[in-house]
Amino acid sequence: MGGKFPSGVAAVGVGDMDFGTLYQKRDLPGPRDPYELAAEAFKNALDDAGLKKEDIDGVLCVRDIKKYEYFCYKVGIEKPRLVNGLESSGRQSGIALQYAAMAIAAGMAHTVAVVYSNNGRTAAFNYGGDGDGGDPFGILHGMTSPGAQVAAMFNRYCHEFGATEQSLAKLAVSNRYHASLHSHSVMKKLFTEEEYLQTRYITEPLRLFDYCLINDGAVCIILTTVERAKDLRKPVVEMIATSACGDMASSYMKEDFFYKGLRMVSQDLCAAAGVKAGDMDCVQIYDNFTATMMFTMEGIGLCDRGGAGEYIDKVGITLGKSPCPINTSNHTSETYMQGFNHQAECIRQLRGECGERQIPDSKLAMYICSAPIISGHIFAKR
Amino acid sequence: MQEAQREKAADWLPVITEFEKPFWDSLQKDQVLMIQKCEDCGHIQFPPSPVCADCLSGAVSWVPCSGKARLWSKVIFHKQYLEPYPDTPYSVVLAKLEEGPIVTGRITNENAQKTAFDGPVKIQYVKTTDGTVLVEFVPAD
Predict the structure, then answer these.
(1) d(Cα A48, Cα A14) in Å, to the nearest integer?
(2) Fold that domain B3-139 belongs to in CATH
(3) What is the ipTM score, two decimals?
(4) Nearest residue in chain A measured CA to CA from B137
(5) String of DSSP letters for A124-180
(6) What's the DSSP call for residue A20?
(7) In angstroms, rounded to a whole number, what is the distance separating the alpha carbons of residues A90 and A212?
(8) How confident is the model at residue B1 (pLDDT cuts 50, 70, 90)?
(9) pLDDT tens figures, B69-128
(10) How does DSSP classify residue A223?
(11) pLDDT of res. A3
């Protein structure tokens, strides 16, 4: 690993929707149609790129549009050269873009739409309630979801490195501030660190504001070759590095807080791109929970092991205050599009489309996800 | 709520395969938590696997764990996710057995509170009203 891959793949289309309005209208008699959400994101991504659906020769469907044939039928794509579906967990978001890039770089497809749709809110999907993410023995003993597993990891992490809930408060406050700068966000009302500390625990030491939202929506990202991208509507954003690494164990909980796997992935990314993590203009970290952001900041080398709290205090994470803002797009306040919103944000920041939350002169952006499949990319403005 | 009162705990037992039956029989009938030891390389593992995850030998034996462990981490659930666990806040412990593997188990809120990280704990077994045997960790000297 660590080679130059992929070469010549660009992100050319991004489509999403107004997640805040969808969330306000969440009390519906039945679930939203995930294919309807997906079709809207797909159309928006085509418009964004200046492409027609006839230009799309690859479709990867993620989460609640598992029936990829059904999705393709509904949007009239009859003979895609690449088509498949990936399971529902958020770790698939980075992987889906990676598979699309692999297919394009290998010449198996030319222009691939990666389509993600989530109707978990109105379908009342009970994350963790069916023991999702836990091991069967743990579930029998009252242990559940990734949230509880991350809570256990964070508790241990505090013991090993002297971290405190104050760091989580700062992350939650910063995520909310960033979300307040998106017109489409689910949660925009600002809160203070003190107010954070007064909110209820879910799985102590994690509180309500440490948890990702559960909201409906869809995102589509279209990838093609850099050569083709030059003729399209938006500035060229190239995927200059991508890498992944399984972190396989008997449950979601990892004794090293994903550290070794994150090192492997981030070293691949930085070697391929010829940069350091600290060279990024922004980093978008998959924040299923705020604590995961601390594990990830250390794993990608923004700071030393155990140093995330100090980094948050001294270097900073927030737009306008940090040289490398973290999570101008996030799950805890903006929208839970399971990594797709973060990847969309990388592309939009590099295009300079982010309005109030624009990071000036953005040239490099990293997406990174800590999970049982760790994955990440570096995007560059061309 | 006492551990013994957890109703329908058995609903959350996994589908038990022929391979895992000795493990669950030992726990549910004999009140012994079995781990696995590779007869070829000595590797210890839990949860069980049909082969040694270190050398892939099929000669893997079920052996009782010593029951001695240290508290690796703990979580306090303030939200109910599972039907047998309505008694929030309740605690769950992740205990590192002296043999190496981490086991998730029951712990009272009081014991979770007073046991330090890496503090010694030991296994005891509790039976719920529907006859399900659970592993609980209590402070050890």
Answers:
(1) 6
(2) OB fold (Dihydrolipoamide Acetyltransferase, E2P) (2.40.50)
(3) 0.97
(4) A141
(5) T--TTTT-TTS-HHHHHTT--SHHHHHHHHHHHHHHHH---HHHHHHHHHHHHHHHH
(6) H
(7) 11
(8) low
(9) 999 999 999 999 999 999 999 999 999 999 999 999 999 999 999 999 999 999 999 999
(10) E
(11) 54
**Structure confidence at residue B73 (pLDDT):** 98
Q: Pick the residue with more confidence: B2 or A382?
A: A382
The stretches in chain A having pLDDT less than 70 are 1-4, 126-134
The pLDDT, as a whole number, for residue B7 is 86
Yes or no, beta carbons of A142 and B84 under 8 Å apart: yes
Q: Indicate the CATH number for domain A9-125+213-381.
A: 3.40.47.10
Q: Spell out which residues of chain B touch residue A143, defining contact as CB-CB under 8 Å.
A: 75, 92, 94, 104
Question: A143 and B103 in contact by Cβ < 8 A?
Answer: no
| A332 Cα to chain B: minimum distance (Å) | 18
**CB contacts < 8 A (A, B):** 88
User: What pLDDT score does A97 carry?
Assistant: 98
Q: Which residues of chain A approach chain B closer than 8 Å at the C-beta? A: 126, 128-129, 131, 135-145, 148, 151-153, 155-156, 159, 200-204, 250-251, 253, 255
From B75, B84, B104, residue closest to A155, measured CB to CB? B75
Q: Where are the domains of chain A?
A: 9-125+213-381
Q: How far is B99 from chain A (nearest CA, A)?
A: 16
Q: Give the DSSP letter of residue A289.
A: B
Q: Which two tokens stand for residue B134?
A: 């659970």
